[in-house]
Design goal:
The chain has 22 helices and 22 strands. By secondary structure, the chain is α+β, with helices and mostly antiparallel strands. Among the domains are: 226 residues, no CATH class; 187 residues, Roll (C8orf32 fold), CATH 3.10.620; 101 residues. Helix 2 runs antiparallel to helix 3, helix 7 packs antiparallel against helix 8 and helix 15 runs antiparallel to helix 17. The longest helix is centred in the C-terminal third of the chain and has 35 residues. The N and C termini lie far apart (97 Å).
């Protein structure tokens, strides 16, 4: 009989002895388990993605090269900050260590990212040299033009944003303090961008990271509480909540995109108006000075050339968005128009400024300026409709003299005097005019200007006897230009045969147009050379700011008063309604030259614009010296550059009445003045330091001066009261948030006892749920001796309320609640005083 084989007789497979991990592996595993808990990897991923969204937006805006280096900086900061948050270091020590790690990381990243075949030592030296040159430039009130410094500034910002986010989440469990700072940065980037890229998509990505992160952090907090209270919960609860929360987030975002969009221009206008206030405008000017060469369609501005300074910097890129439409009265087909906002009179180290001593303002329409009695001028009435938001600049044809709205003007009184010169209708020299109330999209205003219609034959005999107020301001810097630039100017004038100031100005204008190429993509000027010399002698190309600066300083070196005007070229003319459509890429600078008896007259040295010709003009191109203006005392020969063809998108100019006579190449032009010309004397200037002008004095042109005082007084009083009210509301909100949130349904005795625990946690007092009320009372009294009596009263009332039989006497219950409320008021003061004492002792 055959019996089945016993299982026990079946040979067992050979078992390999399990290898125990060595001590190194055990240490790594234990360190990992001590450092990372369940859910930490998801939190780190979401925080990293959250911080990458503003970096993505910056990289898309393309404000500077090298913005892609922000990504590794953010990721490294997230990881190192997580390790610091898991350590036992204090908040201050962790912040110091994070700063040290950040310095090392940023130095390594940007040393390796520098272009060129440098060694590590050479890269470090190059990085240090660029930072030191930038610091030296801006410390001397110069203009920072190195984009690398801007990128490093952003790297430092994002490093500490990452540190703050991780610290708030891991150590303090404050999710909103982690999310709001990078969200504010992202919104600022979107508001500052004026290009065509859809940066708002990164805001959606930010929300898709922020809301799941909020769910994740709150689930972790609840799981920890359940763990301490020994409450069982499903292990897949976290996963289910995250899935549900992510799905709801996506649905909410899609629903928001599907909703009809309300016109938010009003809100944006208020924000931009707030950002245009003086303190924030100064911060904006400081930022522009520190990082002046940012590229891209980039930082949006509603005011073009509206600041107190204009810097000669690197490349520019302007969009074609519409800025304004200007309708003029009368026939302007024979005129070349500009829309001026500002004039600059002082040049120093590549920076133009305008200095005025008087500020005149009027809230109602009708403010007028006495610009002097000059020949060869006519009035031009313009109606300007704005297409941009929250702009305060008044744009008008030069020279604006009567305003159809309330304005604020910076000016000088021609007869030196106080701020009453406008009221007395004395002659003034206006630099810039701003609207009293910011102009919003769709607003319009009327302005009357006194424009020059003088011909070349009228301007030639004007002479060179200038008023003192003109020479005092508009010859500044003429004696301090380089000898090479002065020599070139004299040679241009000499070989052109120009004798009168007008012909000298036309000769310099035509030489710049013929010998300098137009290019908006030039690099930033080096810091060790004057930008005008660099523009003329080295790079020999640039855009309108450089052309105008060069012409002004060249004319000033010959004793011809001139200044730089800024605003817009005339734009695109519409013959149907006689209006001009002005776009952002029409932003422009040009030159104004003063002629005795005729006032300020415009010149156009920029090669990209069509020539500004007047009846009687002579072409000097055939007599220009073909020289190379090298930085030597004796220029050497240079072939004349060819004028580039007009661009397709250049503004449509108004037709010129008559073309300038052009002489054959073999004929030397001669100037035949209508009157006996007076030879122009070229004075020799001694370089002098430009004095700092006094602060402008303000004057109002309103008839009710007392009302102005009370209006200012009430405005200041209103601001103070509003600030106090805001502080009170903030205090009330904080008290509600701390003392009432989550305590609904409790009676006053129970609320007072619960607040002891809330304020105890705020002080860092350690109490456990297993403690009896009496033990908790003793801990609080030991930590806050000043609050012994109210703490004891609240504890005893709570014990009676919690464990005693319900009281039949309602009056006794109300008395207990009243005593508990009064005791808590005293206990709150004691806790706050103890917290302040601890802060002072720590300091």
């Amino acid at each position: 009989m055959t019996y089945p084989q016993s299982r026990r007789s079946t040979p067992l497979p050979d078992r390999q002895p399990q290898r125990r991990p060595n001590r190194v592996q055990q240490a790594i595993v234990q360190a990992w388990r001590r450092t990372f808990t369940r859910g930490d990897m998801l939190t780190l991923f979401l925080v990293n993605a959250l911080l990458w969204m503003p970096a993505f937006a910056l990289n898309t805006a393309d404000w500077a090269d090298g913005l892609g280096t922000l990504y590794p900086v953010i990721t490294i900061s997230v990881l190192l900050s997580f390790l610091l948050a898991r350590s036992y270091y204090s908040e201050l020590l962790a912040l110091v260590l994070s700063g040290i790690y950040g310095f090392a990381t940023i130095t390594i990243v940007y040393t390796l990212s520098l272009p060129g075949p440098f060694t590590i030592q050479g890269r470090l030296q190059e990085l240090g040299d660029r930072l030191s040159r930038w610091a030296e430039t801006v410390s001397n009130n110069g203009v920072g033009t190195d984009n690398l410094v801007f990128v490093i500034f952003l790297a430092v910002l994002f490093w500490f944003l990452a540190h703050n986010a991780i610290w708030q989440l891991i150590r303090l469990n404050r999710v909103w303090l982690a999310i709001l700072p990078p969200g504010f940065v992202l919104i600022t980037i979107i508001m500052s961008y004026s290009g065509n890229a859809r940066l708002e998509l990164f805001l959606l990505g930010f929300l898709l990271c922020a809301l799941p992160l909020t769910i994740q952090v709150n689930i972790e907090a609840r799981e920890y509480q359940w763990y301490r209270l020994r409450v069982k919960y499903p292990r897949n609860l976290r996963t289910n909540f995250l899935r549900l929360g992510t799905a709801m987030t996506i649905m909410a975002v899609l629903f928001g995109l599907a909703l009809p969009i309300q016109d938010g221009n009003g809100y944006w206008d208020e924000i931009k108006e707030f950002l245009g206030n003086d303190p924030l405008a100064k911060i904006n000017d400081l930022f522009a000075r520190l990082f002046s060469s940012l590229e891209g369609p980039g930082i949006a501005t509603a005011d073009y050339y509206g600041g107190d300074r204009l810097d000669l910097t690197g490349p520019v890129q302007l969009s074609d968005r519409e800025v304004m439409r200007i309708a003029v009265e009368g026939n302007t087909s024979d005129l070349r128009l500009y829309w001026r906002s500002t004039v600059f009179d002082t040049y120093q180290n590549g920076t133009w400024t305008h200095n005025r001593s008087v500020r005149a303002y009027k809230d109602s329409p009708g403010m007028s300026f006495n610009l002097g009695d000059y020949a060869g001028r006519r009035d031009l009435v313009q109606n300007v409709e704005m297409f941009i938001s929250a702009s305060s600049l008044i744009y008008a044809a030069p020279q604006p003299r009567e305003m159809g709205l309330g304005v604020d003007a910076e000016l000088n009184c021609v007869p030196e005097g106080g701020p009453e010169c406008v009221r007395r209708n004395q002659e003034v020299d206006v630099a810039i005019i701003r609207a009293r109330d910011p102009l919003r999209e769709g607003d319009d205003y009327t302005v009357t200007s006194s424009i020059s219609v003088a011909s070349a034959d009228e301007l030639r005999p004007a002479g060179n006897i200038y008023p003192e107020w003109v020479t005092r301001t508009y010859l500044q810097g003429g004696g301090s230009i380089s000898g090479e630039l002065r020599s070139l100017t004299e040679q241009i004038i000499s070989q052109s045969g120009a004798v009168t100031p007008y012909d000298k100005a036309k000769a310099v204008e035509q030489w710049l147009r013929a010998n300098i190429l137009y290019n908006e993509k030039i690099p930033t000027p080096p810091s060790n050379v004057d930008p005008i010399d660099w523009f003329i002698f080295d790079i020999r190309e640039g855009y309108c700011n450089y052309y105008s600066s060069a012409m002004v300083m060249m004319l000033r070196s010959q004793g011809i008063p001139s200044r730089m005007a800024a605003g817009f070229a005339e734009g695109t003319y519409s013959p149907n309604d006689g209006s001009y459509l002005v776009r952002e890429n029409d932003a422009h600078t040009w030159v104004e030259v003063f002629f005795p008896g005729f006032g300020w007259v415009e010149f156009e040295p920029t090669a990209d614009e069509l020539p500004l010709n007047r009846p009687g003009d002579v072409s000097f191109n055939s007599t220009f010296p073909t020289i190379t203006p090298m930085p030597t005392s004796t220029p050497t020969s240079l072939p004349t550059n060819t004028l580039p063809p007009p661009q397709q998108n250049s503004p449509t100019p108004s037709p010129t009445p008559t073309q300038s006579p052009t002489l054959p190449p073999n004929v030397t032009p001669t100037v035949t003045p209508t009157l006996t010309p007076t030879p122009t004397l070229t004075p020799t200037f001694t370089p002098t330091a430009t004095p700092i002008p006094p602060e402008p004095q303000a004057t109002s042109l309103e008839t009710d001066t007392g009302g102005g005082f009370w209006r200012v007084f009430l405005t200041i009083l209103g601001i103070i009261l509003a600030t106090l009210l805001l502080i009170v509301l903030m205090v009330v909100f904080i008290i509600w948030w701390v003392e009432h949130r989550g305590l609904g349904g409790l009676n006053p005795v129970q609320k007072a006892y619960a607040r002891l625990g809330i304020y105890g946690n705020w002080l860092g007092v350690g109490v456990h749920n297993r403690m009896t009320p009496e033990e908790r009372r003793q801990v609080f009294v030991d930590e806050v001796p000043e609050g012994q009596h109210p703490i004891t009263d609240i504890t005893h009332l709570y014990i009676y309320d919690r464990f005693a039989p319900p009281a039949a006497d309602h009056d006794a219950q109300r008395e207990a609640e009243h005593v508990a409320s009064n005791a808590w008021t005293k206990a709150r003061v004691a806790f706050i005083r103890e917290k302040l004492h601890r802060w002072l002792r720590r300091s």
